Amino acid sequence: MSGVEVVFSALKSLAELGGRFAGDKVAEKHIEFLRDQLTVVGQSYAKAEEKAGDLERKVADLEAQIASEWKLFRGVYFRLLPSGKMDPSAHCPGCRKPLVNRLVYFSGEATDDYICGVTGCGWHGQNIGRPEALFPAVAKEYGVELGGQLV
Ligand SMILES: [Zn+2]
């Protein structure tokens, strides 16, 4: 039973109760007060349900928009730009911020591993692919060109 149905049920019950106290001015006044309060609650609840429905539709729209914008590839996210090209940056699956390729300490050579530099996130992934191979691979997977600048 929805909240609105509960309120209508209570109003019906009050109407039946009112019949038993016909002529009792004090009881009638209390019943009238309760009916007014229940009516206010019912109206508020109906508005809240309508607002919740609107919010659920907005969330569904935003989720669909996010799903069309973000593409998961080898465990990391890539973003489709408004131009239709793929942002050539791997993004963190935890916080969606750009990831940094972990470099070999002495040579500075790229590796297959990525780390998230966002404080509090700390995500890291291995064997994802070196940037020079990973970015063309994701663009090919989704049939788009790479766009923007490498981060
Ligand atoms: Zn992160």
Description:
- Helices cover 50% and strands 13% of the residues.
- By secondary structure, it is of the alpha+beta class.
- The chain folds into 2 domains: 3-68; 74-142, no CATH class.
- The strands form 2 sheets. A 3-stranded antiparallel beta sheet has the order 3-4-5, with no helix packed on it. A two-stranded antiparallel ribbon has the order 1-2.
- The radius of gyration is 30 Å and the shape is rod-shaped.
- The mean pLDDT is 90.
- Zinc ion (ZN) binds next to loops.
Oligomer: single chain
Bound molecules: zinc ion
The ordered string of helix (H) and strand (E) elements is HHEEEEEH
Q: How many helical elements?
A: 3
Number of domains as seen in the coordinates: 2
Mean pLDDT across all residues, rounded?
90
Number of strands: 5
How would you sum up the global shape?
rod-shaped
Distance between the termini: 54 Å
Helix content: 40-55%
Given helix and strand content, the structural type is alpha+beta
**What is the radius of gyration computed over CA atoms, rounded to a whole number of angstroms?**
30 Å
Largest sheet: 3 strands, antiparallel
Strand adjacency order, main sheet: 3-4-5
Low-confidence stretches: none
Binned strand content: 5-15%
Task: Provide the descriptors you would attach to this structure in a database record.
two-stranded antiparallel sheet; binds zinc ion; 3 helices; 2 domains; 50% helix; 5 strands; 151 residues; alpha+beta; three-stranded antiparallel beta sheet
What's a concise summary of this model?
With 151 residues, this protein is an alpha+beta fold. 50% of the residues lie in helices and 13% in strands. The site of zinc ion has 8 residues, from loops.
